[in-house]
Amino acid sequence: MKRKKSRQFSAVILVFGLLVTSCNNSSEKPTTNSTNTETINQKTMENDRLINFGNQYAAAWCSQKPESVAAYFSSTGSLSVNANAPAVGREAIAKVAAGFMTAFPDMIVNMDSLVTNSNGTAFHWTLTGTNTGPGGTGNKIKISGFELWQIDTAGLIIESKGSFDAEEYNRQLGEKK
């Protein structure tokens, strides 16, 4: 009888031990997964926020409101296009945007992609429009390019270096119709 109780007691201890071990192991896994999930969620949120920023920035270029484009830059931000000197400050950036908006009153800028690496964030875009502004040729254009952004801690563009194929742009503009 003593042996039977001893075996039952040993079996209970064994089962209890397995349960405790199982519970301890399973309680450790969510902590690890939780941390990984938090990291993944944080990166996803940052990526989603950046994509949203890019889409809104593209929409600002379509708005025919140059100040809307400038609002995405820090007060001391700069925008350079191809080999031109950078426009520094929101007022100067708004003038660059106004130049494109005036030349292409029907301008549409679409965000093609955003690529982030150690050099910054590359905002790839395609601009379509008809050059019907003052002195315009009346020609339609479709040109792609990108801006390499440096973003400050407030989430605004501190520097944007834009680039597109100027030769192709000029070819599409051509002569007045």
**Strand-pairing-aware structural class:** alpha+beta
Proportion of residues in extended strands? 25-35%
User: What integer value in Å does the Rg equal?
Assistant: 29 Å
Number of helices: 4
Number of strands: 6
Biggest beta sheet summary: 6 strands, mixed
The residue-averaged pLDDT reads 84
Give the strand line-up of the largest sheet. Answer: 2-1-6-5-4-3
Shape: elongated
CATH class: Alpha Beta
Order of helices and strands: HHEEHEEEEH
How helix-rich are the residues, as a percent range? 40-55%
Low-pLDDT segments, ≥5 res: 4-32
Termini separation? 110 Å
Q: Might you state the CATH topology name?
A: Nuclear Transport Factor 2, Chain: A
Assign the CATH architecture: Roll
Q: How many domains, as an integer?
A: 1
